Amino acid sequence: MTAHLIYAAAGLALVVLGAWSFLVHAPLLRKLVALNVMGAGVFHLLISVGYRGLDAPPDPVPHALVLTGIVVAVSATALAVAFGQRLEGSAGEQDRD
Amino acid sequence: MIDWLALSVALPLLGAVATVALPRFAVPLGLAAALPTVWAALMVMVLVADQGVQVSALGGWGAPLGILLRADGLAAALLGMANLVALAVSLYAPGYFRGSVLEARFWPLWMLLWAALNGLFLAGDLFNLYVTLELLGLAAAGLGALTGQRAAVEANLRYLLVGLLGSMTYLLGVSLIYTALGTLDLEQAARELRAGPVAWVSFALMTGGLILKSALFPMHFWLPPAHANAPAPVSAALSALVVKAAFYLVLRLWLELFGPVVGASAALLLGLLGAAAVIWGAWRALRAERLKLLAAYSTVAQLGYLFLFFPLLAELPAGTARTELLGAAVLLALTHGFAKASLFLCAGLLQKAAGHDRIDELSAATQALPVVTLGVALAGVALIGLPPSGTFTAKWMLLTAAIDLGQWPWVPVIMAGTLLAAAYVFRVLGHAFASAPRHGDAPPIDPRGCPGANAIGLALQLPGLMLALVAVLALGMTAEPLWDLLASTTDPSEAAP
Amino acid sequence: MILDAWLPAAIVLSSLLPGLLIFLLREDRQLLRTGLNMLGALVKLALVGWLIWGVYEGRVFESRLTLAPGLDLVFSADALSVLFVTLSTVLWLVTTIYAIGYLEHSPNRSRFFGFFSLCVSATVGLALAGNLFTFVVFYEVLTLATYPLVAHRGTPDAIKGARVYLAYTLAGGTLLLVGAAWLHALAGPVTFTQGGMLGGLVDDHPVQLTLVFLLLLGGLGVKAALVPLHGWLPQAMVAPAPVSALLHAVAVVKAGAFGILRVVYDVYGVTVAESMGVLGLLAVLASVTIVYGSIRALSQDGLKKRLAYSTVSQVSYIALGASVFGPIATIGGVVHLVHQGIMKITLFFCAGNYAETLGVDRVSEMDGVGRRMPLTTLAFTAGALGMIGVPPAAGFVSKWYLGLGAAEAGSDWVLLILVTSSLLNAAYFFPILFRAWFREPPARWPDEHIPAARLETSAPLLWPPVVTAVLSLAAGLFAASPVSPLEWAELIARREYGL
User: Fold this and answer.
1) Do B436 and C154 touch (CB under 8 A)?
2) Is A42 in contact with B150 (Cβ distance < 8 A)?
3) ipTM score of complex
């Protein structure tokens, strides 16, 4: 009974931590990591929502959400990292412009 | 029976795949996907106008696990606008990118963005909205950074991260709704949501995430650099369509889900932020030195106007007055879509001709390209809100409603926003008439002394002009059917006794 | 009859469509451009003739286009709109001929004539506007169409003048918009109705309706150049002469004055406006403007600038006529709408002729121009005497009715204003006439473009002022005939007062 509530509370804590870290840290890479922490929190929360007791199968809808959400988060992270790499590579170009 | 709803999402997706697979034929393949997509979207609009709300369950799977597409009047109106603008962008892009490596790179992301946009307008449940919103954000950030220039990449990385924060917050709100109500379907959720902490918190989370994406003041900081540094056709799509999609979601959620339960104070807050955006955006646009930055700040201001409608809608009981005002809000959104896309397309050509977009040095380019300048002028008329544009009609109805409801403070905001907009638009247009330089040391202006202008053919100039004409004439003079179309919009407060 | 529903719209379109086509023409397609211009002007004249005949027969003309629920664009024709439409159509025809002659060799002619046609279309649109919303729409379109004309020369002065013009008129337009929307919120669609349309609403919202009146007056006063909202008018003088002529006689300034007439008579109703006490304010504003404009005109050496301040002063006679309660003053104000137009356009044509032919644009350079350009100077003299109000010129008729109306209404101080203004008019026009006719011409003119041949200047420049001068004399001489502007003004006054 309480296990999934603890799970949900941990998820919420991750969300808050992630959001806080996103807002207070300027470097974009740290913001990216913070967002992923926050995303993990949201997914935790959704998983705990799908819990329907030990005897019943879990609700499939939140699980579908989490799967899709992870796919989206991974692609977004990949794109952000690619952008970061590009910025890194062109760090010296500013003077030329 | 052809499923036009599914086609309007699937066709651009196919186009994205095809243009990735065969980059050498990106332009013909992209155009081959674009034309039927626009056709499908317009068919959806016609169907909704004729028969009311359209629903399509993909693969026969209904809610909650299947993907349900749904088009009501509001969705159809925005879908129609978005696809016409997208058509103009598609016709403009090949000429704009000709001879550049970007020519092939543009299409896959652009078709992906288009698919996400159509999907978002047609999504019938909260989770599909999330997926399409994310796809839209990813495609938009990728397109914005297409040139690979440092300023563009940096601006779009910021946009991407802010967008992610927004959609994570939105998803958090969705999970709260699902926990409390056990459904993701908008209609079902609307029936079951009651006023209380759940409604309040999920409203704050979802709307908060979305206003971050729609760049409502003071969450607008990411927009100007991202939109101003993108290639012109991309800026047009970002400013006219992508932020509009986020606004559409705020409006839709508020109309269907939260409006009846969260009360007037939340709407008032949205209105206040909108008012600040109108003034601040217009002021920064006036101070901008570059034309595309001006256009981007103008978007911040124009989105502000859209949020002014919330406190007024919140106070109106269901009925004709409310429907009429909602129509005015949609008309304003549509007009801005056409006008802002036109402004960016035209600005791109002036930039191409002059080699830069510094406003104070655009005299030669504006005079060498009169058709483009006419486009800027007409788009400007629509942005200021002067007749005969659709903005004027919408603004008139907004003013009348504000006065009628006794919400006076919005009146000076609208007036000041109008005058500031006039100031920034005519700051640009004045150069179209200047025959002598402002400063004594600069050489005299000769329209033929703008060599870049010769390379710009009429076919490249027409899409921008056409969009401006739609904003000024079609939406100004013949917008009445819009209200008939919106009559088939889901607004639960109308069903209430 | 189905055509009756199209006629007002057709009158607007008859200049709008040629204007749009002209934009597309290359600079060197002079014949086609002139043809389109003249075709539009003549078709419009024919349509207006049909309209006058129809209104005389008592037919109802109304074109309607619904823009949004409860928001209609309406063109309709009543006696007042017919008066203004006829004035602008006739003067547009004359000004088009003049402009073709004036701008023969200057650049950007297609752009100029395109906007010129738009400007007249907007004027005719607001003349035929059947409700306040339509009026506001065309009031703003007029601002937009006129800006390129003022900026046309492209010099820093022209750009600055155009910017000042825009700042004033758009600010005014915003006030008008808010006032009109407010009225719409209170009263629903504001249809222009003879005798006023507010009904019992005044008793419910006296304060709000007074504020609305002030907003509307503020908005209209900018274009009508009421002091202190007149600052743009002298600056807009940088525009080419045909534009100034159009601005001062037909389009912009007159649109403001016409709007004031509409608001006083057909929105509030003159009886209601009188009972609200807002007419007194209008009377004071108009009087101050009349005197101030004349005083400023005295000290101007630039001919066009002197004429501009004269316009500031003269247009306010129209507002003055509206502000004095009583049908006779109304006749004076309404008829001055026409008279001032004909006289002032003559004066501006002449000023343009002096500048274009001899390079004379200052009063101090006008010594002896009467001998070099006798016909132009005769026309100028007719216009100037009319402005002063020497009988039997048109201006005399206006002032006579205004004075009579003021005496009837017991506003004796208005008589004082009229006398002061006439003396000042004389003080700034007589020196010009004296120089022109009685001083020796200089050995050579400042910048003589067009040599004296059989005619003193080129034909399209010469005949327009002669024609309008004759018209202005005729309007005064034959004021008692059944087809005179005076007769029509009396018809309007009878209907507004329900006599």
Assistant:
1) yes
2) no
3) 0.92
